[in-house]
Amino acid sequence: MDSPRFVCFINRLVLPVLFLPIIGCAVLMTVGCPGNPGSSPARFHVSAGSSSEQAQRDREVFERSFAILNSMQDYPDLEGLPGYETMIQTLDRFNRWIKQREPDPKWKPEPMLEELEKLSRSVAGKVRTVLELLQTLQGTGETAEARKTLPAEERTKAVQEDRVRLGTTLDELDVELRSLAGKSGIPFFAAYAGQISALRQKFRSLDSMPNVQEGVVRAFVQQQLAEERQNLQGVARALESFAETVPSASLLFHKYDIDYLKQSVWMRNISNWARGDKQGSLNRAKALFDWTARNIDLRDELVRIDNQRAVPAALQMPWQTLLLGSGTAWDRAWVFMELLRQQRIDCCLLGNRLPKETVPGAPPAVANGEADRVVFWGIGVLIDGNVHLFFIHEGVPIPGKSGPVTGEKKVLEFPEIATLSDLIAEPELLNRTMTGDDKPFASGEMLRQTIAALPVTPGSAAMRMKILETELAGEQTMVLYTPPHELRDRFGRCEGIASVEIWQHPYRAFFETANAPQRVGEMMAPFHIQSAKTGEYSLWKGRILYFQGRLSGPISAATCFMDAMTPDRLIQDQMARQQAHEKVITETIYRLVNSWAGYWLGLAAEQEEKWEPAREFFVEKSAIGARTSWNRGVPYNLGRINEAEGKYEEAVRLYTLSNNRLRAKWLKESSENR
Fold first, then answer.
1. Based on the number of CB atoms within 10 Å of its own CB, is 278 exposed (0-12), middle (13-18) or buried (19 or more)?
2. pTM metric for this prediction
3. What is the pLDDT of residue 372?
């Protein structure tokens, strides 16, 4: 969007946190050729009128498309990289393929998505109407030209009618924008409703002069509303784009579906190996939560600019959080829930609706209307009718009666995970979650009024994704569609769940990332760097191989991360060939790549229980010359290494340093009781 006010608003809302804004400007890219991976077989159900030749062509298109999605280490698809156009072509193949499919009669629309689509289209239409009226009142455009032949009296009457219509449309637009803001949770809509009110107020000064001359109105519009017209054009484009992506009944794939599909592939791959050999849904959930806590470095909700100012952290989609390996508590929660979804384990966010003036120090909240807010404190995992509880911020499950213990492998284990019913029946179990002078995060009465927020997105509720999922077989199998009405029914039957709602955060994240491409480009800039050793996009390739569980070996995440690291000598050589103003940018981004690669080498070694190499990568390689640091991830993962080695005192110190106070407390207590 090119509206200055909109861009300013978005920049304030989603200011980059991990990177200097200048990073993305200096990335030089060389276009390479993607590989030609194989594919797995798939089932195909074509419409009754399809010929066998057409079915064969469909099969080839489908297999080629999924072969690309399953081999993304060879297709880096960020905009500006070789695989981007390949993914656009893949999207076209999916659209040709789905034209041969028939709508699913058993699919049910999600009411919230239907309402969002209807509202966003209505608002976009009214914005376009306002733009047309302002153009006409300014004396330009086809309508104004056609009126020039009319008598002066008729032109004055037409102008008066346009002014009345403009006022009515602005009033309706104000109401609908506020409704859209409440239903979607996107603050921009509420902010712009305020600007619409201000625009309406400007025209009220003319309402008392019904017979004002056409020239006066034209001059007023030209002088007063030039900036507002530009803003409205940008808002209309954003609304139209949002309206195109929300419809879940559409059988047309749009460009953001590629992100959803690759995200689903990554989540499937990770969940299939990160769960280990654990049997049972609860054990798998514990393993995936542990993987998430170790692999997604936790960042603060607010980012301090200087000593006086702080802004909200940039919002991210789950695929971005996976690539970056860091995010806020909400980013971490979303990744965990997507991993669970690929294992067909139902989950939701848990919270309570509290007055806005709730005591300071409560967990970060998601605003929900003017009168109150929902404070989310945990993730609920539904197994056999019981909602098992996991803390969002602390990265640990809430233990049951037996509490956490240090097991045979020396590490902290959670034999039992508390359920919502457990805490309602025995509120004293909440005392175990206290550290220092903190109070329990909830009371028994609050837990009886728990809100379950479902992570439903336009992609996960779309008919096209349901149709696509039914075609997958073998290694291609993954979860693309989750029926919201079934989730709502299952959680609604659980004790303590007072209401079941749709989590609004994904809609905010999608809208803000879609309308801040420059910021997203800056976040992803290190992945554009090619290895000085191989010429490949080694940082990207290493991440994708890591997601596949290919941690070490000749072609693995570890080898790619090593290839991605650039020696000081080569960095200096690169800087010597550049202008003075480019040198700082170049050095910054290469140091950042080295830091990321070193940190992820540590994670790969830790995953394989190679404690000494992991320690070296965390302590040395991830910090050398870096402009940013993994200030929680490094001490936390070092704590995990020390815990595995039985060095509990050092582990407790490191957990405290990384703000994982509950794990520090429980490890200390359980180790003393061994």
1. middle
2. 0.88
3. 61
Helix (H, G, I), strand (E, B) or coil at 384: coil
d(CA 499, CA 447): 12
Using 70 as the pLDDT threshold, list the residues of the chain that sit under it: 1-51, 206-213, 224, 226-227, 355-372, 623-629
Residues 278 and 379 sit within 8 Å (Cβ to Cβ): no
Distance between CA atoms of residues 245 and 255, nearest Å: 9
Q: How many Cα atoms occupy the beta-carbon half-sphere of 498 within 13 Å?
A: 11
Q: What is the pLDDT of residue 51?
A: 63
Closest CA to 84 of 72, 66, 93: 72
Judging by beta carbons within 10 Å of its beta carbon (0-12, 13-18, 19+), is residue 507 exposed, middle or buried?
A: buried
d(CA 169, CA 160): 14
Bridge-based pairing state of the strands 302-304 and 310-312:
antiparallel
Torsion of CA 432, 434, 435, 438, to 10 degrees: -160
- Determine the Cα–Cα distance for residues 14 and 55; give it in Å rounded to an integer: 46
What are the Cα distances from residue 439, in Å, to 359, 433, 434, 435? 11, 9, 6, 8
Assign 390 to helix, strand or coil.
strand
What is the end-to-end Cα distance of the chain in Å, rounded? 60
The CA-based dihedral angle spanning residues 160, 161, 163, 168, taken in that order and rounded to the nearest 10 degrees: 150
Q: In which residue are the tokens 């506020």 written? A: 178
Q: Which of 269, 315, 330 is nearest to 543 (CA)?
A: 269
Give the number of other Cβ atoms within 10 Å of residue 354's Cβ.
15
CB-count burial class (<10 Å; 0-12, 13-18, 19+) for 254: middle
* DSSP symbols for 214-277: HHHHHHHHHHHSHHHHHHHHHHHHHHHHHHHHS-SS-----HHHHHHHHHHHHHHHHHHHHTTT
Structural contact between residues 479 and 268, judged by C-beta atoms closer than 8 angstroms: yes
Which H or E element spans position 382? Answer: strand 372-383
